DNA sequence: TTCAATGTTGATAGAGTCTTGATGTTTTAT
DNA sequence: ATAAAACATCAAGACTCTATCAACATTGAA
């Protein structure tokens, strides 16, 4: 039983979806215009059904725009059945793509699959992959790029793990220091700067530069 | 670049899948019999492609059995295209269902979507809001337009946040100064004017001009 | 204990940001 | 129409934060 948000310009389709999903005991909010809802409100739902062909801003545009801020699955529902549209939809951040006219049962099965997956506890993965590109082996405490290990020292690895597992979040030097060092240690903050430099140097050997500087704030992995 | 496991009884199909995904820089392990691999080994991969029709235990049986122990996405790949099979596959724990013969590009797009989703950090709803299609992420302290960040410096961002959060309200230069600067700083008011100019310039690159001048009073976001 | 690897520090160069004043432009009031 | 006031623009340089490097300290393994 989830809160599902459906956005479509066609009121009849919205009614159908709503009726159908409410029969499965979901709560459904329907919206005809994206402007009627805020990002925060979207995130309060568990899943977003998004029509593609709408007057003005279409579903692809909306997805591109909101995806970085939305943390729920986005499922496109559209009559556009050509392969390039499917690929586009999935590429810009869609989690699934359902073609109209759709089978009520399949839609429901797909929604259930997505909801189940959201609920699935993220076990402590032995390896996390960042950007589909850099692997971080949390057990072995290693960073691997294209099958090759980028050898890091303990502190260097810890900093990388912290930043990489929270990619997109800015960490201040102080924040990094506190996360990586034990309470009682009292080095100067500038050691963090030095570690960052060495880490960057090592990554640069592989033409990687994942750590960016946010001026006056700190460092960010992106 | 992920470690992908493909299970199918047909060696030819496995070769095809392997070749295709390796072209996309994934690492692919192929298995013809589920008995050749352990649960722990499966979990070391990032995604499982599972054939349905196999002699002995079929894909559905396997999925049912291992799903509670497997934490990676499972994608069925099968020629069984009838609705009830799709629904069954998704119901018993499959995360997606691809029908043979498949489009290489669509398979890849779906795999990418699943991998991206695994990498997606589970975050609280970001406290962000929209205005004129401009997103302001109060947590990340970023301004985003059409998925792209408009890079602002610290002070520039603060001014934008102040104005945008109170859109429709006019702020005097003095008001902006006091809101953005710390007590003890004593710059001239004209620096605010300069900041506004640079902010406008940055927004103008995207054909945006959210900040208007109210003569003799101050600035307003609308 | 010794040596090599790693971690820390401070000095300095470098890059990014902020501020200022001079100057040009637009608006308002007379 | 003109002057005064408010705002916009620009470039220079002051300022702040970051990157780099080399020297020194510490740790850990042989």
From TrEMBL, chains A, B:
Domain Response regulatory stretches: 3-115
Residue positions, PTM 4-aspartylphosphate: 51
Presence of the UniProt keyword Phosphoprotein in the record: yes
One cellular component term from this protein's GO annotations in UniProt: cytosol
Top-level taxonomy: Bacteria, Bacillati, Bacillota, Bacilli, Bacillales
Domain OmpR/PhoB-type, first and last residues per copy: 125-222
Protein's UniProt keywords contain DNA-binding: yes
SMART domains: REC (SM00448), Trans_reg_C (SM00862)
Name under which the protein is recorded: Transcriptional regulatory protein SpaR
GO MF annotation: an example: phosphorelay response regulator activity
Keywords of this entry: DNA-binding, Phosphoprotein, Transcription, Transcription regulation, Two-component regulatory system
DNA-binding region: 125-222
GO BP term (any one): regulation of DNA-templated transcription
Pfam families with a match to the protein in the record: Response_reg, Trans_reg_C
